[in-house]
Amino acid sequence: MLVIMQQDSTVEQCAKVEDVIRDMGYEPLPVPGESRTAICVTGNKGPVDPSHLQRLAGVRECVSVTRPYKLVSREVKPESTVVDVAGVEIGGSDPVLIAGPCSVETPERTLAIADAVKRAGGQLFRAGAFKPRTSPYSFQGFGYEALDTLAEVREQVGLPIVSEVVDTDAVGPMSEVVDVLQIGSRNMHNFALIKKLSMVRMPILLKRGLSASLEEWMLVAEYLLSAGNHQVILCERGIRGLAGHARNIFDLNVVPLVRSISHLPIIADPSHGVGDRSRVRAMARAAVACGAQGLLVEAHTTPDSAFTDAAQTIDMDSLSGIHRDIRGLKGLETLSLDQ
Ligand code: PEP
Ligand code: MN
Fold first, then answer.
1. Which residue of 19, 141, 203, 301 sits 20 to 30 Å from the alpha carbon of 80, by its own alpha carbon?
2. 216, 258: one domain
């Protein structure tokens, strides 16, 4: 249930609505919005009786919310959310290009790659300090040391930084250095991490879990929003499938669907979605054409020597090509996916 307040409602009237919601045994959550003031009723197991609420001063109307996720849905917030990352708008009118090597490498190599990413048109630099690897014998990332490298990139190259946080202990130190904290696929259901990240007030890039349904993914975003972190960017990165021809099934179906059911920005990661560099550019193009508001692409100056995920890592010429492609696709926004 969503209680929509009249345009001229007062702070006292909103507080009274919140008190009544609490008296009914539910939890009120104010929904930030430019065009209206609204209060979401959460914690109900079934339909909420709107009769008490409707009669309160300042209330315009009560509308029922049909989906299990509320704050992330357009039913509750019709206008699209734009997440500002150090001046780069994600979810605004232009698709955003986020790129970098899978892992933070040595400081020299990482700085050189970041510089090349910037020259190729990348707006945010993405590299993992901590790598959640399938095998304990694989390179796990340089960890805290790599955070110093990322800080150097930020300062010397001037690109905002995106990096994955794999456990709750790293949230504090990482939030000092990076501009966006990534929740990786393997951690989409790490509730201790999700709850900790719901308390920070900085942008979160929420990757879809390896086998997560749309509803499970949206409900994790709901955890973040319901505790007050509204700066959430969704990322489609492919889900497990039986196909031997690709690392994952890159589920571009979900992109226009998310645009219509949620106000949160959605970007796509064709690198993990496809797993093979020869098809990354084609699928990057497809992702933006169907409504992705940005791309996360693994790119390197010498892709074959990348510490991790070399097979799907593209070179800088391909990254420039993707940059040109997405500029050319801008006109497709007239498809009006935000309904
Ligand atoms: C990554 O972004 O390098 C990564 C490990 O991705 P995912 O969590 O999507 O597998
Ligand atoms: Mn990777």
1. 19
2. yes
